[in-house]
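Collaborator request, handled under Task 6.
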Amino acid sequence: MKDKSVLPIEEQLNRFLQPKCLIPGGLGLWEEYFRKICTAWGEISGEIRPQHIIFSADNGCNMEGYVGYNYEVTQKQSRNMLLGRSSATQFCNFNNIPYEVVDVGIASDDGIGVDCKVAKGTKNI
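C-alpha cells returned to the collaborator:
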C-alpha cells in the first residue's frame, strides 16, 4: 500500500470519506466544503475550527437618501458587535465560535475592532 503522504489529496479525501458516506455526496454541503478546505490546506485535518469575521464599512447610501440613518449608526453597530451585543455575535457566543470585527471603511477617525481601514467610508455611493 502506498504511503498516504504521496497520494494526491483528492484520493486521500475519497479514502477518508468513503467509510463515512453511504452514498457519494451524501453529506451534502458539509462534504463539499470539507473537500474544499482540505484541498486548500493540502491535508486532511481531524479538527476544523470555524471563525466568524465581520467586515464593517460605510457605503455612502445615506448621501443619496436611500437609507434613513447616518454614518454614526455603523460605528454604533460595529462597537456593539465588539461587545457581543448583535445577533451575529450572540450566535457566535452561543455556539463557541470566535469572531472579530474588521474595520475596512467605517467613517470614523479611529479604527473599530481590527483596523484595516481602506478609507473613512465611501463618501457617496
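The cover message to the collaborator said: "The longest strand covers residues 99-105. Residues 52-115 form one domain. Please let us know whether this matches your experimental observations."
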